[in-house]
Amino acid sequence: MSINVHIRPIEDSDVEPVVAFWREADLLRPWNDPRHDIAFARSNSNSTVLVASHEGKLIGTVMVGHDGHRGWVYYVASDHNLRGQGVGRSIMQAAEHWLSDRGVWKVQLLVRSTNELAKGFYEKLGYVDTQSSCFQKVLAVPS
Description:
alpha+beta, 5-stranded mixed beta sheet, Aminopeptidase, 29% helix
């Protein structure tokens, strides 16, 4: 079963509801400031946050951007009460279209190694585990 999903770029009035939505979806980590992440994504044309709604209610999100070569998605979330109704698939398709409209032909994402549900979801969408390791260095904590 699939529901009608409306997807659009985030607006100022969406920021606090999106942060609350991410908190409920357990996407937030102490070292990431979601409001800063949203503002940074909106600060240039290489990234954005897309929000999905159904009958005026926030039901999904994705932060999407590119580095000029690869596309990336973050903060992918869907209303847990609507799992299996196409929300996640719709939001990922919107992110993929956003990237391909900008000439980006490859998209990547990070999944925590313990998140088997997410791994299965992305595999159903055609994503493959590249068996790569992700290394990180924090240059500065955003203020």
